[in-house]
Amino acid sequence: MPKAFPPEFRRDVVAVARKGEAPISQIAKDFGISESCLHRWLKIADTDDGNRPGTTTTESVELRELRKRAKLLEQENEILRRAAAYFAKEISPK
Description:
By secondary structure, the chain is mainly alpha-helical. It is 74% helix and 0% strand.
């Protein structure tokens, strides 16, 4: 897994790249990251700033958390359904 860079570092690199004073390849080299990484950061920043359509970072985090919660609730529901069926079988007259 690639090393994670702090958000402040990413913001600084994106800000330098957006100034357009140097080529992307040179900026990436100066900051010790790959060109593709810088392109991805620029794309993410454009989406987060509303300059490009897509899911923002905060929306992605929220969606991920909601999916986890939905999965947990489905598991809990399945357990309760099975427990109810088990107890209904035990209580019913034979």
